């Protein structure tokens, strides 16, 4: 798709929802003025730029529609799956992943389930972690292994094991956390898909927090 290269300034409201609203208002029976449209978008009054913004938005919608139609019913490529897995495990929403791949939300959800990846439920948190899928349950993990940490909804690396009445693992948690943690084995899940697609730990670092992994505990 040819992009018109409309650049967005920080204060401008050029998200899809706002642009779509402006288009609807301009195309209604009694349309708003172009000046009013610019005000809604929080841009300077410029009819040419307004037209470019609207046309780019329409082009993007049309391109997305065609790409989704072309991909509908076709299998995911290994590259698509690799990117999908990395994005999902980094905390990206399924809807955003689907949009970026020009796939339906339903097809992405099904593929993630087929890969036995943990489901990130909205009603879970640190004190109420989601259940690990049966296929990913294990009571033993290797040093350096990348696993799913249910309490953090993030990928973590096994750094040590402590055995008392049960087994607790010392972790380095990636994602937005970037910190040490401890979790029992039943709150950790195998991520065989990481090995399958050769994903590395550095791909799961998604934070601006300083890295204190070198510190001595």
Summarize the structure.
With about 220 residues, the protein is α+β, with helices and mostly antiparallel strands.
Explain what this protein looks like in three dimensions.
The protein has seven helices and five strands; from the N terminus they run ααααααβββββα. The model has no long low-confidence stretch (mean pLDDT 87). It has three domains: 16-71; 78-114; 134-204, Roll (SH3 type barrels). 37% of the residues lie in helices and 14% in strands.
Oligomer state of the chains in this structure: single chain
- First-residue to last-residue Cα separation: 53 Å
- How much of the sequence is in beta strands? 5-15%
Helical content (DSSP H or I, runs of 4+): 25-40%
Number of domains: 3
Mean pLDDT: 87
Instruction: Characterize the biggest β-sheet.
Output: 5 strands, antiparallel
* SSE series: HHHHHHEEEEEH
Instruction: Choose one word for the global shape.
Output: elongated
- Using the coordinates shown, work out and report the CATH topology of the largest domain: SH3 type barrels
């Amino acid at each position: 798709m040819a992009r018109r290269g409309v650049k967005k300034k920080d204060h401008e409201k050029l998200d899809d929802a706002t642009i779509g609203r402006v288009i609807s208002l301009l195309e209604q029976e009694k349309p708003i003025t172009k000046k009013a449209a610019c005000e809604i978008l929080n841009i300077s009054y410029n009819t040419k730029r307004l037209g470019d913004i609207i046309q780019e938005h329409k082009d993007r919608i049309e391109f997305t529609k065609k790409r989704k139609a072309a991909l509908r019913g076709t299998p995911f490529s290994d590259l698509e799956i690799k990117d999908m897995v990395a994005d999902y495990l980094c905390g990206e929403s399924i809807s955003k992943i689907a949009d970026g791949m020009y796939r339906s939300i339903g097809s992405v959800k099904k593929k993630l389930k087929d890969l036995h990846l943990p489901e990130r439920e909205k009603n879970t948190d640190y004190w109420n972690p989601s259940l690990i899928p049966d296929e990913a349950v294990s009571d033993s993990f290797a040093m350096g292994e990348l696993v799913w940490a249910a309490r953090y909804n993030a990928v973590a690396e096994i750094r040590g094991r402590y055995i008392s009445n049960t087994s607790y693992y010392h972790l380095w948690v990636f994602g937005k956390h970037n910190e040490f943690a401890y979790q029992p084995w039943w709150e950790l899940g195998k991520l065989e898909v990481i090995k399958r697609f050769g994903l590395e730990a550095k791909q799961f670092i998604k934070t601006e927090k300083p890295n204190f992994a070198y510190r001595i505990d």
